[in-house]
Structures are given as C-alpha cells and as structure tokens.
Amino acid sequence: xxxxxxxxxxxxxxxxxxxxxxxxxxxxxxxxxxxxxxxxxxxxxxxxxxxxxxxxxxxxxxxxxxxxxxxxxxxxxxxxxxxxxxxxxxxxxxxxxxxxxxxxx
Length: 105
Prior knowledge:
Elements lengths: L1 H60 L8 H35 L1
C-alpha cells in the first residue's frame, strides 16, 4: 500500500510540474498575442492619422509630393517601426511554437 501512495505522490508532483510549465508557456504566448493586438491597434491609428494628413494637405493645398514634409515622414517612420515590432513579436511566437513542438517529440 505504501508503494501505491509513493507512486501516486510522484505522479502528482510530476503532473504539477508539467502543468506549471504549460501554464507558463500559455501565459507567455498570450502576452505576445496581446502585445501584437495592441501594436496592430496603434498601427491602425497611425494609418488613420496618415490618411487624414495626406487628405487634408491634398484637399487644402493640392499637395501631391510629401518628400520634404517632416510630419509625413515621421508618420511613415512610425508605421514602419510598428510593423517591424509586430513582425518581431510574431517571429518570437513562431519560435516558441517550434520549440514546443520539438519538446513534445
């Protein structure tokens, strides 16, 4: 009977370690997904600002060339930076999934 309880205790402790690891992985993945969603919302807002700015300049002053426009270039730079950050987060998430798949094999 003692052997049975010892085996049971060992199994329960192993299961709790595995459950803890899985919960940690899930939390990390969820945090990455939330970060991606927040960045995508920020990106959408920047696209709106950029579109409104281009529309206003084109409509008011018939500007079609934004080569030297610092505000325009700043908005474009912000869009590019956020797109890169989103790509980095997605790559990190993809790496985590690959790592999990290798560990399960």
